[in-house]
User: Fold these one by one.
Assistant:
Number 1:
Amino acid sequence: AQTVTQSQPEMSVQEAETVTLSCTYDTSESDYYLFWYKQPPSRQMILVIRQEAYKQQNATENRFSVNFQKAAKSFSLKISDSQLGDAAMYFCAYRGTLAGGKLIFGQGTELSVKP
Amino acid sequence: GAVVSQHPSWVICKSGTSVKIECRSLDFQATTMFWYRQFPKQSLMLMATSNEGSKATYEQGVEKDKFLINHASLTLSTLTVTSAHPEDSSFYICSASGLDPQYFGPGTRLTVL
């Protein structure tokens, strides 16, 4: 069975600085998708970024980028120029190409941003 | 991005009553909808997967007779918590999938007194 692990329950970053959130996963599939979701205090889940496993190029979305290491099964999220609005719970998620498309979430990392 | 709504956003009920939560995809057809449960400061726990027109697939440990799921159309799925008890109090989130990726509803906070 697939698993997703986020080993950092809490992280803190100074406004305008850069922070990296870690995520590792385990799977026997060769093709899959990886996601980072943000859950602010409103609790609305917001898609931050996605990565297709077959793509070697790391995904980027404005200030958000990932470091996808397929062999190491690692998928970290880098947030550059952190803003107060980035403060939230961040979840790493895995989705295989089978199994009805369900997402498997990590435990989450709570990010606080200091002004 | 696509919009998914949930109704109600917050519900308080007495122990023993049933509560229905609706999940709608507003601007796309969702062939698959997912229901999650989330406790404070914890991750989302998948309860069940529902496909339009067929029975829901429940995750291990989720009581299908307690959490009734109906996916009658491509834009609506409902979760009914039957004979609710205080331990069912939680935050329930649905998500809808048509094309990638999944889009999430805003969640429903259920409090059972």
Number 2:
Amino acid sequence: GENVEQHPSTLSVQEGDSAVIKCTYSDSASNYFPWYKQELGKGPQLIIDIRSNVGEKKDQRIAVTLNKTAKHFSLHITETQPEDSAVYFCAASKGNAGKSTFGDGTTLTVKP
Amino acid sequence: NAGVTQTPKFRVLKTGQSMTLLCAQDMNHEYMYWYRQDPGMGLRLIHYSVGEGTTAKGEVPDGYNVSRLKKQNFLLGLESAAPSQTSVYFCASSYSQGGEKLFFGSGTQLSVL
């Protein structure tokens, strides 16, 4: 089955700096790659996603890039703010009845 | 708009007891899922449903059963709880195939003593 690896497991940055989280996947048939943000005590919430026919997608301060050849995708957060502190999960899906495989998560801490 | 609602939010069980977790969504989504979240292990799929009356096994189905009698509800049952089932359980739903845009509930913290 699909295997998704996520790095780093923890990331600490100063407010205003950029943060980058990387994921690799194993199944070349995967075609949908979402990123979820989980705040303390809450369920994960989709923040951005990308499909395999797109190389990059941006939404204000966050962007995701995809390299299908290398089978890796990354989340970029610019001008980080304390409210960006959370656990971030990447995931990969092949489109078969919604079975997304998740990475183990990255705990991002933004220091004021 | 409530989205995905899970009950209860917290529960403590003794080994061997049974319980049912309820998930309800008001978005008319076809697909519903149960995940468990353990420290450092991300989210693992337990069971899922592609429509009313259907269920299927996910990555870690052993020790759990599910039912989808109504489109808006997805129940997760533990027949004989074990300490290894101590976890945070999340229900999610989506409106299209491919696990796209999962909408999660706020979770149920379950402890099995």
